[in-house]
Design a protein that fits this description.
By secondary structure, the chain is α/β, with parallel strands linked by helices. 39% of the residues lie in helices and 16% in strands. A 6-stranded parallel β-sheet has the order 2-1-3-4-5-6, sandwiched between helices. Helix 3 packs parallel to helix 4.
Length: 171
């Protein structure tokens, strides 16, 4: 199976703690001493989940990421929680991601980042109006995802009830 089109456009630079690649530096690192993140990713594309898993493993090795390929399984996992953030694709095989977002917002207050190939402004506006903290359009740069995760989880860790700024990210 060929990789998704969006992945071929996304530059991937993975760095480990014991390797150096010339003068390049990781564009993003989680601050030392920060609480490890617990992330729920609801995504049906195995390549996408593997790339994000590897990226997080390198940049935040103490964090844990849980995967659900179906929306209903993701909802059940979210109920069992707790998670610091949810990464949600809208094109799921069993239920539309917008419906998953609506149901998640009924019982949890954690930030939800939509990671989707749906570029329709109406869909984007609807997701943000329903409470998504951010909307990242595929194809996306992995550094953008890491920075948004850091932004959201830092705000959640430092203050309860902070209004999280919403923005749409397109690379």
């Amino acid at each position: 199976m060929p990789p998704p089109k969006w992945l071929s456009k996304a530059p991937i630079r993975l760095h480990t703690r014991n390797q150096s690649y010339g003068n390049s530096q990781p564009a993003y690192t989680f601050r030392k001493g920060s609480k490890p993140m617990k992330i729920l990713m609801i995504e049906d594309d195995k390549l996408t989940t593997e790339v994000i898993r590897l990226t997080l493993e390198v940049h935040d090795p103490n964090s844990t990421i849980f995967f659900s390929e179906k929306g209903r399984d993701g909802l059940e996992s979210a109920r069992k929680g707790p998670f610091d953030v949810v990464l949600l694709d809208l094109g799921l095989p069993d239920i539309d991601g917008i419906k998953v977002l609506e149901e998640l917002k009924e019982f949890c207050t954690i930030p939800i980042i939509i990671v989707s190939a749906r570029h329709d402004p109406t869909v984007i506006a609807n997701a943000l109006n329903l409470g998504a903290a951010d909307y990242i359009l595929k194809p996306f740069n992995l550094n953008t995802l890491l920075i948004r995760l850091k932004d959201l989880t830092t705000q959640v860790q430092t203050s309860e009830g902070v209004q999280i700024p919403t923005r749409i990210t397109e690379d």
